[in-house]
Amino acid sequence: MTLSTADLRQKFKDYFQSHGHQPVASSSLVPADDPTLLFTNAGMNQFKDTFLGAEKRSYTRAVSSQRCVRAGGKHNDLENVGYTARHHTFFEMLGNFSFGDYFKKEAIEFAWNFLTKEIGLPKEKLLVTVYSEDEEAFDIWENHIGVPKEKIIRISTSDNFWSMGDTGPCGPCSEIFYDHGAHIWGGPPGTPEEDGDRFIEIWNLVFMQYNKQADGTMEALPKPSIDTGMGLERISAILQNVHSNYEIDLFQNLIQAAATIVGSEDLENKSLRVIADHIRSCSFLICDGVMPSNEGRGYVLRRIIRRAVRHGYQLGASDIFFYKLASALSKEMGEAYPELVDQLPVVEKVLRVEEEQFSKTLARGMAMLNDTLETLEGDTIPGDVVFKLYDTYGFPTDLTNDVAREHDLKIDVEGFESAMQAQRARAQQASNFGADYNNTLTIDHATSFTGYSDVEGEANIV
Ligand code: ATP
Ligand code: MG
Ligand code: MG
Ligand code: MG
Protein backbone atom coordinates (compact mmCIF):
# COMPACT_ATOMS: atom_id res chain seq x y z
CA MET A 1 0.00 0.00 0.00
CA THR A 2 1.36 3.45 -0.86
CA LEU A 3 -0.07 6.31 1.13
CA SER A 4 0.84 9.95 1.32
CA THR A 5 1.99 11.15 4.71
CA ALA A 6 -1.16 13.25 5.04
CA ASP A 7 -3.41 10.26 4.24
CA LEU A 8 -1.57 8.11 6.73
CA ARG A 9 -2.11 10.63 9.51
CA GLN A 10 -5.82 10.59 8.72
CA LYS A 11 -5.99 6.82 8.52
CA PHE A 12 -4.51 6.47 11.97
CA LYS A 13 -7.05 8.87 13.43
CA ASP A 14 -9.94 7.18 11.62
CA TYR A 15 -8.91 3.74 12.81
CA PHE A 16 -8.80 4.70 16.46
CA GLN A 17 -11.86 6.90 16.23
CA SER A 18 -13.77 3.91 14.90
CA HIS A 19 -12.64 2.09 18.04
CA GLY A 20 -14.09 4.66 20.41
CA HIS A 21 -11.16 7.08 20.69
CA GLN A 22 -11.82 10.79 20.96
CA PRO A 23 -9.74 12.76 18.44
CA VAL A 24 -7.75 15.40 20.29
CA ALA A 25 -5.87 18.19 18.52
CA SER A 26 -2.12 18.48 18.84
CA SER A 27 -1.10 20.76 21.67
CA SER A 28 1.47 23.54 21.34
CA LEU A 29 5.19 22.82 21.18
CA VAL A 30 5.49 25.03 24.23
CA PRO A 31 4.15 22.88 27.05
CA ALA A 32 1.36 24.46 29.06
CA ASP A 33 2.17 24.80 32.76
CA ASP A 34 5.13 22.47 32.67
CA PRO A 35 8.39 24.29 33.33
CA THR A 36 10.20 20.95 33.58
CA LEU A 37 9.78 20.36 29.87
CA LEU A 38 11.63 22.35 27.22
CA PHE A 39 9.39 21.41 24.31
CA THR A 40 6.51 19.02 23.82
CA ASN A 41 8.30 15.80 22.97
CA ALA A 42 5.57 13.15 23.05
CA GLY A 43 1.86 12.70 22.52
CA MET A 44 1.29 12.01 26.20
CA ASN A 45 2.54 15.41 27.40
CA GLN A 46 -0.82 17.12 27.12
CA PHE A 47 -2.46 14.24 29.01
CA LYS A 48 -0.03 14.20 31.91
CA ASP A 49 -2.58 15.40 34.47
CA THR A 50 -5.19 13.02 33.14
CA PHE A 51 -2.84 10.10 33.68
CA LEU A 52 -2.06 11.40 37.14
CA GLY A 53 -5.78 11.55 37.92
CA ALA A 54 -5.62 15.30 38.59
CA GLU A 55 -7.67 16.15 35.53
CA LYS A 56 -10.90 14.43 34.50
CA ARG A 57 -11.90 14.30 30.87
CA SER A 58 -15.22 13.35 29.35
CA TYR A 59 -13.61 10.43 27.49
CA THR A 60 -11.34 7.55 28.47
CA ARG A 61 -9.84 6.88 25.04
CA ALA A 62 -8.07 9.42 22.89
CA VAL A 63 -6.18 9.60 19.61
CA SER A 64 -3.87 12.37 18.42
CA SER A 65 -1.16 13.36 16.05
CA GLN A 66 1.13 15.45 18.20
CA ARG A 67 3.77 17.82 16.90
CA CYS A 68 6.99 17.22 18.80
CA VAL A 69 10.43 18.78 19.00
CA ARG A 70 13.41 16.87 20.33
CA ALA A 71 16.22 19.36 20.18
CA GLY A 72 17.16 19.84 23.80
CA GLY A 73 16.41 18.64 27.29
CA LYS A 74 16.00 14.97 28.08
CA HIS A 75 15.24 14.00 24.50
CA ASN A 76 17.71 15.62 22.15
CA ASP A 77 18.00 14.36 18.59
CA LEU A 78 19.65 17.46 17.14
CA GLU A 79 22.96 15.65 16.77
CA ASN A 80 21.29 12.74 15.02
CA VAL A 81 19.85 14.82 12.22
CA GLY A 82 21.80 14.25 9.04
CA TYR A 83 23.38 11.12 10.48
CA THR A 84 20.53 8.64 10.93
CA ALA A 85 17.67 7.74 8.63
CA ARG A 86 15.08 8.09 11.35
CA HIS A 87 15.61 11.18 13.50
CA HIS A 88 14.27 14.69 13.13
CA THR A 89 14.26 17.71 15.37
CA PHE A 90 10.57 18.12 14.54
CA PHE A 91 8.28 15.16 13.91
CA GLU A 92 4.70 14.09 14.41
CA MET A 93 3.85 11.42 16.92
CA LEU A 94 0.70 9.42 16.31
CA GLY A 95 -0.73 8.04 19.50
CA ASN A 96 -3.64 6.26 21.08
CA PHE A 97 -4.33 6.59 24.79
CA SER A 98 -6.38 4.83 27.41
CA PHE A 99 -7.08 6.59 30.68
CA GLY A 100 -7.91 3.68 32.95
CA ASP A 101 -9.93 2.07 30.16
CA TYR A 102 -8.31 -0.75 28.15
CA PHE A 103 -4.88 -2.14 28.96
CA LYS A 104 -2.09 -4.32 27.65
CA LYS A 105 -3.97 -6.89 25.64
CA GLU A 106 -6.15 -4.42 23.74
CA ALA A 107 -3.27 -1.97 23.25
CA ILE A 108 -1.16 -4.69 21.65
CA GLU A 109 -4.09 -5.89 19.55
CA PHE A 110 -4.87 -2.38 18.32
CA ALA A 111 -1.26 -1.75 17.32
CA TRP A 112 -0.84 -5.10 15.61
CA ASN A 113 -4.12 -4.86 13.74
CA PHE A 114 -3.43 -1.34 12.59
CA LEU A 115 -0.02 -2.31 11.24
CA THR A 116 -0.78 -5.67 9.71
CA LYS A 117 -4.42 -5.33 8.66
CA GLU A 118 -5.24 -1.66 8.30
CA ILE A 119 -2.07 -0.65 6.47
CA GLY A 120 -0.97 -4.13 5.45
CA LEU A 121 2.61 -4.41 6.71
CA PRO A 122 4.05 -7.91 6.29
CA LYS A 123 4.14 -9.65 9.68
CA GLU A 124 7.50 -11.23 9.00
CA LYS A 125 9.17 -7.83 8.81
CA LEU A 126 8.09 -6.90 12.32
CA LEU A 127 9.73 -7.73 15.61
CA VAL A 128 8.95 -6.57 19.10
CA THR A 129 10.67 -5.90 22.39
CA VAL A 130 9.27 -6.32 25.88
CA TYR A 131 10.64 -5.37 29.28
CA SER A 132 12.55 -8.38 30.56
CA GLU A 133 10.26 -8.88 33.56
CA ASP A 134 7.01 -8.31 31.71
CA GLU A 135 5.84 -11.92 31.27
CA GLU A 136 2.32 -10.76 30.61
CA ALA A 137 3.33 -8.76 27.50
CA PHE A 138 5.57 -11.59 26.28
CA ASP A 139 2.68 -14.00 26.62
CA ILE A 140 0.25 -11.73 24.76
CA TRP A 141 2.67 -11.28 21.85
CA GLU A 142 3.48 -14.96 21.67
CA ASN A 143 0.21 -16.70 22.38
CA HIS A 144 -2.46 -14.19 21.60
CA ILE A 145 -0.94 -12.43 18.60
CA GLY A 146 1.23 -15.31 17.39
CA VAL A 147 4.60 -13.59 17.04
CA PRO A 148 7.35 -16.24 17.00
CA LYS A 149 9.37 -16.38 20.25
CA GLU A 150 12.63 -15.47 18.55
CA LYS A 151 11.09 -12.21 17.37
CA ILE A 152 10.14 -11.11 20.87
CA ILE A 153 13.22 -9.61 22.43
CA ARG A 154 13.53 -9.10 26.16
CA ILE A 155 15.22 -5.83 27.11
CA SER A 156 16.25 -5.16 30.67
CA THR A 157 17.33 -1.53 30.39
CA SER A 158 15.34 1.60 31.14
CA ASP A 159 14.69 1.87 27.38
CA ASN A 160 11.83 -0.51 28.04
CA PHE A 161 10.70 0.87 31.35
CA TRP A 162 9.05 4.25 31.19
CA SER A 163 8.46 6.65 34.05
CA MET A 164 7.01 10.12 34.20
CA GLY A 165 9.49 11.26 36.83
CA ASP A 166 11.28 10.03 39.95
CA THR A 167 7.90 9.22 41.44
CA GLY A 168 4.44 8.72 39.93
CA PRO A 169 3.04 6.61 37.10
CA CYS A 170 5.44 4.25 35.37
CA GLY A 171 5.54 0.88 33.73
CA PRO A 172 7.07 -1.40 31.14
CA CYS A 173 7.07 -0.68 27.40
CA SER A 174 6.90 -2.79 24.33
CA GLU A 175 8.38 -1.43 21.12
CA ILE A 176 7.63 -2.52 17.59
CA PHE A 177 10.48 -2.54 15.06
CA TYR A 178 10.50 -2.88 11.29
CA ASP A 179 13.26 -4.75 9.47
CA HIS A 180 14.28 -2.72 6.41
CA GLY A 181 16.45 -5.58 5.12
CA ALA A 182 19.89 -7.09 5.29
CA HIS A 183 21.34 -4.62 2.81
CA ILE A 184 21.21 -1.95 5.51
CA TRP A 185 23.68 -1.98 8.37
CA GLY A 186 22.38 -2.56 11.88
CA GLY A 187 21.18 -5.24 14.27
CA PRO A 188 18.02 -5.91 16.25
CA PRO A 189 17.56 -4.19 19.61
CA GLY A 190 19.72 -5.61 22.36
CA THR A 191 22.63 -6.39 20.02
CA PRO A 192 25.86 -4.41 19.74
CA GLU A 193 24.88 -3.33 16.20
CA GLU A 194 21.53 -1.89 17.17
CA ASP A 195 22.73 1.68 16.47
CA GLY A 196 22.34 1.03 12.76
CA ASP A 197 19.22 1.78 10.80
CA ARG A 198 18.27 -1.68 9.58
CA PHE A 199 15.79 -2.31 12.38
CA ILE A 200 13.87 0.89 12.93
CA GLU A 201 11.66 1.40 15.94
CA ILE A 202 8.26 2.51 14.75
CA TRP A 203 5.92 2.31 17.73
CA ASN A 204 6.33 2.43 21.45
CA LEU A 205 3.56 1.07 23.67
CA VAL A 206 3.76 2.15 27.29
CA PHE A 207 1.87 0.20 29.91
CA MET A 208 1.39 2.48 32.91
CA GLN A 209 0.70 0.10 35.70
CA TYR A 210 2.59 1.27 38.78
CA ASN A 211 2.78 4.32 40.95
CA LYS A 212 6.36 4.70 42.08
CA GLN A 213 6.70 5.88 45.67
CA ALA A 214 9.40 8.14 47.05
CA ASP A 215 11.01 5.14 48.77
CA GLY A 216 11.23 3.32 45.43
CA THR A 217 8.42 0.82 46.00
CA MET A 218 6.01 0.15 43.18
CA GLU A 219 2.33 0.26 43.98
CA ALA A 220 -0.06 -1.21 41.46
CA LEU A 221 -2.23 1.51 39.89
CA PRO A 222 -5.93 0.78 40.46
CA LYS A 223 -6.67 1.75 36.87
CA PRO A 224 -3.71 1.07 34.60
CA SER A 225 -3.42 3.25 31.50
CA ILE A 226 -1.96 3.17 28.01
CA ASP A 227 0.21 5.68 26.22
CA THR A 228 1.56 4.95 22.75
CA GLY A 229 3.66 6.84 20.22
CA MET A 230 4.46 6.13 16.61
CA GLY A 231 6.56 8.39 14.39
CA LEU A 232 4.48 9.44 11.40
CA GLU A 233 7.52 9.93 9.16
CA ARG A 234 8.92 6.50 10.04
CA ILE A 235 5.75 4.62 9.23
CA SER A 236 5.33 6.74 6.14
CA ALA A 237 8.78 5.68 4.92
CA ILE A 238 7.80 2.03 5.20
CA LEU A 239 4.56 2.55 3.31
CA GLN A 240 6.29 4.49 0.59
CA ASN A 241 8.86 1.70 0.19
CA VAL A 242 11.81 3.82 1.16
CA HIS A 243 14.29 3.35 3.94
CA SER A 244 14.98 6.85 5.19
CA ASN A 245 12.43 9.30 6.51
CA TYR A 246 14.13 11.86 4.31
CA GLU A 247 12.96 9.98 1.23
CA ILE A 248 9.24 10.31 1.92
CA ASP A 249 7.03 12.60 -0.17
CA LEU A 250 7.00 15.45 2.31
CA PHE A 251 10.77 15.56 2.73
CA GLN A 252 11.53 15.05 -0.93
CA ASN A 253 9.44 18.11 -1.73
CA LEU A 254 11.19 20.17 0.93
CA ILE A 255 14.62 18.95 -0.18
CA GLN A 256 13.80 19.80 -3.78
CA ALA A 257 12.62 23.26 -2.75
CA ALA A 258 15.78 23.81 -0.69
CA ALA A 259 17.97 22.64 -3.57
CA THR A 260 16.31 25.07 -5.96
CA ILE A 261 16.64 27.95 -3.52
CA VAL A 262 20.33 27.42 -2.76
CA GLY A 263 21.16 26.37 -6.32
CA SER A 264 22.35 22.88 -5.47
CA GLU A 265 21.96 19.90 -7.76
CA ASP A 266 23.06 17.18 -5.43
CA LEU A 267 19.77 16.03 -3.91
CA GLU A 268 21.54 13.41 -1.80
CA ASN A 269 23.56 16.02 0.03
CA LYS A 270 23.33 15.70 3.79
CA SER A 271 23.13 19.45 4.24
CA LEU A 272 19.87 19.55 2.27
CA ARG A 273 18.38 16.99 4.63
CA VAL A 274 19.44 19.02 7.63
CA ILE A 275 17.94 22.18 6.15
CA ALA A 276 14.68 20.38 5.32
CA ASP A 277 14.53 19.11 8.87
CA HIS A 278 15.36 22.45 10.45
CA ILE A 279 12.78 24.48 8.51
CA ARG A 280 10.10 22.34 10.13
CA SER A 281 11.23 22.78 13.72
CA CYS A 282 11.97 26.48 13.24
CA SER A 283 8.67 27.31 11.52
CA PHE A 284 6.56 25.35 13.96
CA LEU A 285 8.36 26.80 16.98
CA ILE A 286 7.81 30.34 15.71
CA CYS A 287 4.13 29.56 15.03
CA ASP A 288 3.88 28.42 18.63
CA GLY A 289 5.28 31.72 19.84
CA VAL A 290 8.95 30.94 20.40
CA MET A 291 11.20 33.80 19.28
CA PRO A 292 14.95 33.56 18.78
CA SER A 293 16.73 34.81 21.87
CA ASN A 294 19.78 34.26 23.99
CA GLU A 295 18.27 31.90 26.48
CA GLY A 296 15.98 28.97 27.08
CA ARG A 297 13.66 27.91 24.28
CA GLY A 298 14.52 30.92 22.18
CA TYR A 299 18.17 30.02 22.24
CA VAL A 300 17.46 26.50 21.07
CA LEU A 301 15.54 28.03 18.17
CA ARG A 302 18.40 30.42 17.40
CA ARG A 303 20.87 27.55 17.41
CA ILE A 304 18.77 25.51 14.99
CA ILE A 305 18.41 28.48 12.63
CA ARG A 306 22.16 29.10 12.68
CA ARG A 307 22.88 25.45 11.98
CA ALA A 308 20.56 25.56 8.98
CA VAL A 309 22.17 28.75 7.71
CA ARG A 310 25.63 27.22 8.05
CA HIS A 311 24.53 24.21 6.03
CA GLY A 312 23.29 26.56 3.33
CA TYR A 313 26.67 28.26 3.32
CA GLN A 314 28.25 24.83 2.99
CA LEU A 315 26.13 24.24 -0.10
CA GLY A 316 27.30 27.52 -1.60
CA ALA A 317 24.13 29.58 -1.08
CA SER A 318 25.01 33.01 -2.35
CA ASP A 319 22.39 34.93 -0.42
CA ILE A 320 20.10 34.48 2.55
CA PHE A 321 17.86 31.57 1.72
CA PHE A 322 16.42 29.83 4.75
CA TYR A 323 13.35 32.00 5.20
CA LYS A 324 12.31 31.28 1.62
CA LEU A 325 11.68 27.67 2.53
CA ALA A 326 8.90 28.53 4.94
CA SER A 327 6.42 28.92 2.11
CA ALA A 328 7.35 25.49 0.70
CA LEU A 329 6.63 24.05 4.13
CA SER A 330 3.32 25.82 4.42
CA LYS A 331 2.31 24.30 1.08
CA GLU A 332 3.40 20.87 2.25
CA MET A 333 1.81 20.88 5.70
CA GLY A 334 -0.57 23.84 5.71
CA GLU A 335 -3.65 21.72 5.30
CA ALA A 336 -3.02 19.82 8.52
CA TYR A 337 -1.59 22.90 10.25
CA PRO A 338 -3.36 26.05 8.99
CA GLU A 339 -1.23 28.20 11.30
CA LEU A 340 1.67 27.60 8.90
CA VAL A 341 -0.31 29.48 6.28
CA ASP A 342 -1.79 32.14 8.56
CA GLN A 343 1.50 32.95 10.19
CA LEU A 344 3.72 32.60 7.15
CA PRO A 345 4.62 36.31 7.01
CA VAL A 346 5.65 36.23 10.67
CA VAL A 347 7.73 33.09 10.26
CA GLU A 348 9.44 34.50 7.19
CA LYS A 349 10.21 37.77 8.88
CA VAL A 350 11.66 36.22 12.02
CA LEU A 351 13.81 33.83 10.03
CA ARG A 352 14.98 36.56 7.67
CA VAL A 353 16.05 38.87 10.48
CA GLU A 354 17.93 36.07 12.21
CA GLU A 355 19.60 34.97 9.05
CA GLU A 356 20.62 38.49 8.09
CA GLN A 357 22.22 38.97 11.49
CA PHE A 358 24.14 35.74 11.41
CA SER A 359 25.23 36.14 7.78
CA LYS A 360 27.21 39.19 8.82
CA THR A 361 29.67 37.05 10.74
CA LEU A 362 29.22 33.58 9.28
CA ALA A 363 31.67 33.87 6.40
CA ARG A 364 34.40 35.38 8.57
CA GLY A 365 33.84 32.77 11.27
CA MET A 366 34.01 29.98 8.71
CA ALA A 367 37.21 31.42 7.25
CA MET A 368 38.77 31.40 10.70
CA LEU A 369 37.56 27.89 11.36
CA ASN A 370 38.85 26.63 8.02
CA ASP A 371 42.25 28.19 8.72
CA THR A 372 42.32 26.35 12.02
CA LEU A 373 41.35 23.07 10.34
CA GLU A 374 44.12 23.42 7.78
CA THR A 375 46.84 23.80 10.35
CA LEU A 376 45.38 21.61 13.07
CA GLU A 377 47.52 18.96 14.65
CA GLY A 378 45.65 16.23 16.49
CA ASP A 379 41.91 15.66 16.48
CA THR A 380 40.58 18.48 18.66
CA ILE A 381 39.65 22.05 17.83
CA PRO A 382 41.15 24.15 20.66
CA GLY A 383 38.87 25.73 23.23
CA ASP A 384 40.02 29.28 22.52
CA VAL A 385 39.05 28.90 18.85
CA VAL A 386 35.65 27.53 19.83
CA PHE A 387 35.26 30.44 22.22
CA LYS A 388 36.26 33.06 19.67
CA LEU A 389 33.82 31.60 17.15
CA TYR A 390 31.14 31.76 19.80
CA ASP A 391 31.94 35.14 21.22
CA THR A 392 32.89 37.09 18.12
CA TYR A 393 31.13 35.32 15.28
CA GLY A 394 27.99 33.98 16.93
CA PHE A 395 28.75 30.28 16.41
CA PRO A 396 26.93 28.26 19.06
CA THR A 397 29.22 25.46 20.24
CA ASP A 398 26.97 22.78 18.79
CA LEU A 399 27.39 24.41 15.38
CA THR A 400 31.18 24.32 15.66
CA ASN A 401 30.89 20.77 16.83
CA ASP A 402 28.77 19.96 13.78
CA VAL A 403 31.58 21.21 11.53
CA ALA A 404 34.16 19.35 13.62
CA ARG A 405 32.23 16.12 13.26
CA GLU A 406 32.16 16.47 9.49
CA HIS A 407 35.96 16.37 9.65
CA ASP A 408 36.09 13.55 12.22
CA LEU A 409 37.25 16.00 14.84
CA LYS A 410 36.14 16.99 18.33
CA ILE A 411 35.98 20.30 20.09
CA ASP A 412 37.76 21.05 23.36
CA VAL A 413 34.76 21.63 25.61
CA GLU A 414 36.84 22.13 28.75
CA GLY A 415 39.04 24.70 27.07
CA PHE A 416 35.94 26.49 25.85
CA GLU A 417 34.48 26.51 29.36
CA SER A 418 37.60 27.97 30.87
CA ALA A 419 37.77 30.69 28.22
CA MET A 420 34.18 31.42 29.16
CA GLN A 421 35.07 31.55 32.85
CA ALA A 422 37.90 33.93 32.12
CA GLN A 423 35.54 36.21 30.25
CA ARG A 424 33.12 36.13 33.15
CA ALA A 425 35.85 37.06 35.55
CA ARG A 426 36.80 39.99 33.33
CA ALA A 427 33.18 41.07 33.12
CA GLN A 428 32.89 40.83 36.88
CA GLN A 429 36.00 42.91 37.39
CA ALA A 430 34.77 45.52 34.95
CA SER A 431 31.45 45.78 36.74
CA ASN A 432 33.29 46.18 40.05
CA PHE A 433 34.68 49.37 38.62
CA GLY A 434 31.22 50.57 37.90
CA ALA A 435 31.41 50.20 34.13
CA ASP A 436 27.97 49.65 32.69
CA TYR A 437 28.77 48.28 29.25
CA ASN A 438 27.93 44.79 30.39
CA ASN A 439 24.28 45.52 30.70
CA THR A 440 23.45 43.73 27.51
CA LEU A 441 25.84 40.88 28.14
CA THR A 442 24.19 37.64 29.12
CA ILE A 443 26.68 35.44 30.86
CA ASP A 444 24.85 32.22 31.36
CA HIS A 445 27.01 30.28 28.95
CA ALA A 446 24.75 27.24 28.92
CA THR A 447 22.11 29.08 26.99
CA SER A 448 23.60 32.33 25.89
CA PHE A 449 25.26 33.94 22.97
CA THR A 450 27.06 37.12 23.69
CA GLY A 451 28.28 38.26 20.31
CA TYR A 452 25.67 40.85 19.41
CA SER A 453 23.76 43.32 21.43
CA ASP A 454 20.03 43.56 21.20
CA VAL A 455 19.45 41.03 18.46
CA GLU A 456 16.15 40.24 20.06
CA GLY A 457 15.03 43.82 19.74
CA GLU A 458 15.53 43.60 16.02
CA ALA A 459 13.56 40.41 15.74
CA ASN A 460 10.40 42.10 16.91
CA ILE A 461 7.54 41.60 14.59
CA VAL A 462 5.60 44.48 13.18
P1 ATP B 1 14.77 5.98 18.93
O1 ATP B 1 15.20 4.87 19.85
O2 ATP B 1 14.69 5.57 17.49
O3 ATP B 1 15.55 7.25 19.13
P2 ATP B 1 12.80 6.60 20.90
O4 ATP B 1 12.75 5.32 21.65
O5 ATP B 1 13.65 7.70 21.45
O6 ATP B 1 13.25 6.33 19.35
P3 ATP B 1 10.11 7.18 21.75
O7 ATP B 1 10.48 8.13 22.82
O8 ATP B 1 9.73 5.80 22.12
O9 ATP B 1 11.33 7.15 20.66
O10 ATP B 1 8.99 7.88 20.84
C1 ATP B 1 7.93 7.15 20.23
C2 ATP B 1 8.08 7.09 18.73
O11 ATP B 1 8.30 8.38 18.15
C3 ATP B 1 9.26 6.26 18.26
O12 ATP B 1 8.93 4.89 18.24
C4 ATP B 1 9.51 6.81 16.86
O13 ATP B 1 8.65 6.21 15.91
C5 ATP B 1 9.14 8.27 16.99
N1 ATP B 1 10.33 9.12 17.19
C6 ATP B 1 11.04 9.30 18.33
N2 ATP B 1 12.03 10.19 18.17
C7 ATP B 1 11.93 10.62 16.88
C8 ATP B 1 12.66 11.58 16.11
N3 ATP B 1 13.66 12.29 16.62
N4 ATP B 1 12.29 11.78 14.82
C9 ATP B 1 11.27 11.08 14.28
N5 ATP B 1 10.54 10.16 14.96
C10 ATP B 1 10.86 9.93 16.25
MG1 MG C 1 15.42 8.46 20.81
MG1 MG D 1 14.09 3.65 21.28
MG1 MG E 1 11.01 4.18 22.15
From TrEMBL:
Gene Ontology molecular functions: ligase activity
All copies of domain Alanyl-transfer RNA synthetases family profile, residue ranges: 3-462
Reactions mediated catalytically: tRNA(Ala) + L-alanine + ATP = L-alanyl-tRNA(Ala) + AMP + diphosphate
Keyword Aminoacyl-tRNA synthetase in record: yes
Compartment(s): Cytoplasm
Cofactors: Zn(2+)
Keywords: Aminoacyl-tRNA synthetase, ATP-binding, Cytoplasm, Ligase, Metal-binding, Nucleotide-binding, Protein biosynthesis, RNA-binding, tRNA-binding, Zinc
Cofactor binding note from Swiss-Prot or TrEMBL: Binds 1 zinc ion per subunit.
Domain of life of the source: Bacteria
Keyword Cytoplasm: yes
Enzyme Commission no: 6.1.1.7
Function: Catalyzes the attachment of alanine to tRNA(Ala) in a two-step reaction: alanine is first activated by ATP to form Ala-AMP and then transferred to the acceptor end of tRNA(Ala). Also edits incorrectly charged Ser-tRNA(Ala) and Gly-tRNA(Ala) via its editing domain.
Domains: entry comment: Consists of three domains; the N-terminal catalytic domain, the editing domain and the C-terminal C-Ala domain. The editing domain removes incorrectly charged amino acids, while the C-Ala domain, along with tRNA(Ala), serves as a bridge to cooperatively bring together the editing and aminoacylation centers thus stimulating deacylation of misacylated tRNAs.
Family: Belongs to the class-II aminoacyl-tRNA synthetase family.
Entry protein name: Alanine--tRNA ligase
Organism expressing this protein natively: Alteromonas stellipolaris
Organism placement in taxonomy: Bacteria, Pseudomonadati, Pseudomonadota, Gammaproteobacteria, Alteromonadales
Residues included from the entire protein: 1 to 462 of 865
